[in-house]
Design brief:
Elements lengths: L1 H9 L3 H47 L7 H12 L4 H24 L6 H5 L1 H17 L3 H92 L14 H142 L4 H119 L13
Helix pairs in contact: 1-7, 2-7, 3-4, 3-7, 4-6, 6-7, 7-8, 8-9
Amino acid sequence: MFHGVQGWMRRWRIRTRLFWLGGLGGLAVLLGLGLALWLGQGLTVLSQRVFVSKDVVADILPPPLYLVEMRLVVSQVAEGSLPLAQGRTEVARLRQEYEARATFWREHPPHGLETSLLGAQHRAGLAFMDGVAQLLALPEEQALTQLRAGLPELQRQYAEHRAGVDETVRQATAMALADMAAFEQMVAQSRQGSLLAGGLLLAAVLGLAGLLAATVLEPLRRAVRAVQQVAGGDLAAPVDVAGADELTDLGRALQAMQQELATMVQHVQRDAQQVAVASEQIATGNRELKIRTESQAGAVQETAAIMEELHCTLNASADNARQVCSLTQQASAMASRGGEVVGQVVGTMQGIQDASRRVGDILGVIDGIAFQTNILALNAAVEAARAGEAGKGFAVVASEVRMLAGRSAEAAREIKRLMHDSSERVERGGALVEAAGAAMGDIVRAIQQVNERVVQISDASLQQNAGVAQMGVSIDNLNAATQQNAVMVEQAASATMSLHGQADGLVQSVARFRLQGQGEHAD
């Protein structure tokens, strides 16, 4: 029957079961609260009656509802120990206090004591106070006489009042004792009823909780066994699933997890084998890469040495180019100065040529003068011959002059011929000097072009030197990178070997799982 109830409860969701358990607990709490409220209300009524009875006794036995103090004032006034005026004041005060308390009890009537508290004894008290008030209201001589005469009647009224007070005290005391006994009896009954109801409700709640725990713990145990089997590597053990509650959902989830985990393990086994093979291939490739990297590192180092030599060669070429540039600049300066000298020579030759032309002109004049002198000498000789003896001396002179004029003309012609030759030579020299000047200009321009080319060569050498230096830095960086690559290849080889070992470990780890269609899993 218990298992049948468990199966019936398994068709409920755990939330529903907890709801019913909580509802039962809430019902128990409500019943307990209702019982406590009912008992508390009864206890409150009884306690109020007890307190009211005690309040009545406390209020009536001493003043102001008990007129013993007013009776004492009347006696003191009658015997003359208290002045009449003071007696009137005290009586008025005591009556005011009495009426205030009587008004309170009329507004808050005591349960079961209304008649005795506000009945005969109250009327007797009012009659006593009215009689006292009437007597004290008389003139002083008459008031004292009438007061002493009326004392017996006042004593009778006071005695009735006192008898009513005693009866009220007796009734209040009896009621308080009865209510206290009922209060104690109700407390005992409420304690017993609370214990009985609490025990019954506790038994019901514990029974339902035990049944709920049984419907929860057994599926949890099955789920724990399934998880332990999965943790042990058995992915083929079936997971029992029955019911429609959350634990059934948990079982289905565990079943789905087992199936997915089995599929994942199959994939992991296959992938682990592939990883192991791939890691072996990577290790082989890393070894080959290490060899090639070391070879490349050696080649880079050789290239670095060659680039260093080329750098030195380019430095030497740049220095030579700078020296050649300096020499060509000096040669250009010298050629420029030579061109200037040739120009000066050309100017000088032109001056000589001009002077030769002027000398030729002067010689032409001298030749003309010699010709005229010769003619004049000839004429003089003719005239001297005509003169006879007188003209012999003059004829000799004329002959000498003619001879001198002839020699002068001859000398002038010779000088003119020499000057003509000199002029031709000066012209040829001028032409040669002009040609030399042009050649010097060509030489200067050629030297300048050579200088420009040398400067370009020097600049190109500097650029090549800078490029080679940068290339050297790049090769150094390449060498460092190659060295780092070699280290990284070594590390990669170590990591690959570690990966290979881990892949083997992974293969061995997943081999311990037992799947559907397999025998006992391997260790």
